[in-house]
Amino acid sequence: MALKNAPDLTQRPPRSARIQLGGYVILPRMLDKGRATIAGTNGEFNYACPMDGRLLEFVGVDPKGLKKQLATGKGDGEILEWIQKSAKHKRTEAEIHSWSLLSSQRAPADTESREYFQSLQSQVAPKREDVMTWFDLLDIDDFVSFGGKV
After folding, report:
1. What is the pLDDT of residues 78-132, one digit of tens each?
2. Which of 87, 88, 129, 145 could join 59 in a cystine, given CB atoms 3.0 to 4.6 angstroms apart?
3. Would you put residue 114 in left (φ > 0), alpha (ψ -120 to 50) or beta?
4. Sign of CA dihedral 119, 122, 125, 129
5. How far apart are CA 83 and CA 77, in angstroms?
6. Domain residue ranges of the chain, discontinuous segments joined by +
7. How far apart are CA 21 and CA 14, in angstroms?
8. Is the whole model's pTM more than 0.85, yes or no?
9. How far apart are CA 145 and CA 77, in angstroms?
């Protein structure tokens, strides 16, 4: 299905997970991946991945319902309005801010996720010692995957 506002994620990465919409980190990246999935241009990026799932769970929105809204061609602002109206969990500005801050600082917490994190980092930026959070790793992976040098 052609979607005029769908990014081609085979040519460039989705927006950084750090970018906010309505105070929510992750949301613009998830919308990019959702639109690209609908258009068949998502490349190696997955809509409703575990990171997206944390946001979907926090607001209480079904990924299939959100994908249906994206398929109508709605822009970011319209999608944010839909999320605010449809969310099972009506979050305050302070809750959204706290959740976004915590999400942006998330680092691997257990042995299995630390090992996975370190294996990914060793592939994309083995000499970088400043990659501490999942957002750091995503940003550097996106950069390197599309031709950047570290």
Report:
1. 999 999 999 999 999 999 999 999 999 999 999 999 999 999 999 999 999 999 9
2. 87
3. alpha
4. positive
5. 10
6. 1-104, 108-150
7. 14
8. yes
9. 29
